[in-house]
Prior knowledge:
Blueprint lengths: L4 H13 L6 E5 L6 H13 L12 E4 L10 H12 L8 E5 L7 H12 L5 E7 L7 H4 L3 E4 L10 H16 L4 H37 L5 H41 L11 H10 L2 H19 L5 H13 L6
Parallel strand pairs: 1-4, 1-5, 2-3, 3-4
Amino acid sequence: MPLAASDALDLLVQAHQHNRLAHAFLITGAKGSGKRQLALGLAAHLLTCTPETALTHPDVHSLAPESKSRKLVIEQFRELEHALRMHAHRGGLKIAIVFEADRMMPQAANAFLKTLEEPPKNTHIFLLSEHPEQLLETILSRCVAVQLRSTGKSERSQQEVAVTELLSRFYETRKADLQGGLWLAQQFQQLLGSAKGTIQSAAATAFKAEEKQYKQTVDPKWLEQLEEAHEAKTEAAYVGERTRMLELLEAFWTDVLLLQNEQPARHLPECAPHAERLANELQQHDALRRVQAIAGMRGHLNMGGVNEPLALEHGILNAFAPAQSP
C-alpha cells in the first residue's frame, strides 16, 4: 500500500544504515504526495546536507522537462550520464533525480536504460512520476518502486466515488457468495468501461485539435506518429485509472486489517461500517489473503496481454466471495 513520504524516508534511511539501499528508485504518487520531498530528503541524508540545499549540491544532478513539448530528451540524459561517470566533487556519493520521468522521449528512455543496467559506482538514481504506467517496462523492472499516498484531502474522481458506492451497495444488498461476487465483478467492469469511454472521448477531442493545427504544416508521417502517440497516451491513462480504482478495492481490505489490529480505518471512511463488520467476522489471515488477491490481480493486469474481464472476475471473486481458508 502507498506510504506517507515521511514514513518512506524513514524506511529508506534505515535501509542505507544497513547497507541495503538500492541504486535506483521509482518514486510515484499523485500530485501533493511528497515525491519531491522524499527525493530531496533522501539526497540530503546521503550527502549530509539539507533538503533545501540538496539541488544545489555539486554531487546532485537533476533533470526536468525543458523543451517546448515538455519532454525529457536524449541530450539531457547524455549530459546526466557524463556527469555520473565523473568522480564525485566531494569524494562521496552522486545522486541523480529525474522529475516527471514519465515524460521521457523513447530515445531518451532507451539511452537511460544503459545507465540503469550498469550504474556508475557510488551512484543513486531517483525517478519521480505521477504516471509510472507510461514508463517502459524495462525501466520499471530496474527500479525499486516507492509508492506514496496523497497527503491532501483532494476530492475523489467520479469513478472513484462510484467504486466506494458500489462496495457499499454490494454489502447492503448482496451476499458474499459466488452469485454476489459475479455481480460485483460485472458492475466493476461496467465502471471501468465508463471510465475508458470518458478517457477515449477526451483523447479524441485533443487529437482532432492538434491534427487541425498541424495538418497543413507538417509531414504526413509526423501526423501518423502523433496519432500513435495519442493512442499510447490514451491506453496509459486508462491503465492508470484502472489501477486507482483497483487500489480502492485493496484499500477496503487494508482497512479491515487495520481494524483487526485495533487501529482506525484510514482509507475508505465511507465503507467503514462494512469494514468493521468484516473485521469482527473474519480471521486475520483471511483478510490478508483478500488484500493479496487484489494486489495480485493488479500486478497480473499490468503485465499486459491479459484477458481483462477474466482476470477481473477471477480476482474479485477471490477477494470478495472466497471460501474461508482453514
